[in-house]
Write a structure and sequence with these properties.
By secondary structure, the protein is of the alpha/beta class. The chain contains eleven helices and 14 strands. The protein folds into two domains: 244 residues, 3-Layer(aba) Sandwich (Rossmann fold); 68 residues, no CATH class.
């Protein structure tokens, strides 16, 4: 700070660090792990490969090959609106731990898929745990193929039981049918849906926003389903937080569920978890200017202004519920949260409350018979 008491009269310039605005973090970058037709050699095996299109993928890692799920998933991701992904080629599931470790070095990943992996223990203890530990990404899990999915002891309900409760993961059933691109005659093949679902999520993020539930959306490239659920069956699976893929008359296969694996009602829906992760990531990235700044009321006001401006934009986009911004969120940063002992430790506490929007999972129509005429009410 210039001591103006001893400075010569004139014009003086001071530079300040701006307090915002906060840019939104990315949410739609997918990481897909699996075996590719052309495996890299040496140290490149198990390392993430950035790809921006199906052509870019096949040029580097090959096309389709019998027994491989990853190529179909990558194609489905881009066909459904995905624009950027990291593909982690591994020889077999023994390389999963190393692949997930590599993904910890990529903070822009928002979605994680291991197409075709249906072992509940690996899904829970490896893929879902990775997303929980990172706290900024979401696992899209494939349900196991099952021709009697509601029968106790059968593969799907056994898998679901093994997955437990998780707020950073969702499971989808059944597998989807697509035209087999490797067949010499027209035929279909059943493939796991996770890559296609990642593309649907990416599409919803770009067209509406991360607050949009990734459901009631067409699955591009799918021409059928490996199992046809009826309403009663889906109702039972929905109660188990298994997201159904459905095909209604005259429509292509659709995503018809938007639940996480969480047993906690506040975290029931995918878009709620992903919206909160988006806000957290955006604030972490957008508030780095404040680290090591003087911990005083001027800093607090700057932080409050930056956060309020960002959350106002989230509210205006439809991500938060309320007729006014004050109803949609609050930001508190004051001396009650930051007394002298807290400041002495070099800490700043900010309390933020969000009124998130949740999807209209059930639309209730109340219909009655009316014989016409006037209606009279007494007050």
């Amino acid at each position: 700070m210039v001591d103006y008491a001893t400075a010569a009269p004139g014009i003086h310039l001071e530079e300040i660090t701006p307090a915002g605005p906060i840019s939104g973090a990315g949410t739609s970058v997918a990481a897909l792990i699996g075996t590719t037709a052309t495996l890299p050699t040496g140290d490149a095996l198990g390392k993430p490969v950035p790809v921006t299109s199906w052509n870019a993928y096949k040029d580097r890692l090959g096309e389709y090959k019998s027994g491989l799920n990853l190529p179909y998933a990558v194609r489905g991701f881009f066909d459904n609106g995905g624009t950027f992904a990291y593909v982690v080629p591994i020889k077999d599931m023994g390389g999963l731990d190393g692949a997930l470790l590599e993904l910890t070095r990529l903070p822009d990943v928002g979605l994680v898929c291991v197409p075709g992996l249906v072992d509940a223990a690996a899904q829970k203890d490896k893929v879902t745990k990775h997303c929980e530990d990172m706290h900024d990404r979401f696992a899209i899990l494939d349900g196991v193929q099952d021709k009697d999915p509601l029968k106790p002891g059968n593969p799907l309900l056994t898998q679901r039981s093994g997955l437990g409760s998780a707020i950073f993961a969702a499971v989808y059933f059944p597998w989807i049918k697509i035209p087999d691109p490797a067949a010499t005659t027209p035929t279909t093949i059943a493939v796991p849906p996770s890559g296609h679902i990642a593309g649907v999520m990416s599409r919803c993020d770009s067209t509406v926003g991360v607050h949009r539930a990734p459901a009631n959306e067409q699955i591009r490239g799918a021409v059928g389903l490996d199992f046809t659920l009826n309403d009663a069956e889906q109702g039972m699976l929905n109660k188990q937080n298994i997201n159904a893929l459905r095909q209604f008359p005259g429509t292509p296969p659709m995503v018809w569920g938007a639940r996480t694996l969480s047993a906690d009602v506040p975290w029931r829906f995918i878009n709620v978890r992903r919206l909160v992760s988006y806000v957290e990531d955006s604030l972490i990235e957008g508030l780095r200017w404040a680290v090591f700044a003087p911990n005083n009321t001027a800093l607090w006001k700057g932080l409050e202004r930056s956060i309020t401006e960002f959350l106002t934009r989230v509210w205006e986009s439809g991500g938060l519920f309320g007729r006014t911004a004050k109803e949609a969120f609050y930001v508190t940063i004051d001396e009650s949260l930051n007394p002298a002992p807290v400041r002495d430790r070099g800490e700043v506490y900010i309390e933020i409350g969000l009124a998130v929007t949740r999807p209209a999972e059930h639309i209730i129509l109340r219909l009655g018979l009316w014989d016409g005429g006037a209606k009279v009410s007494e007050g």
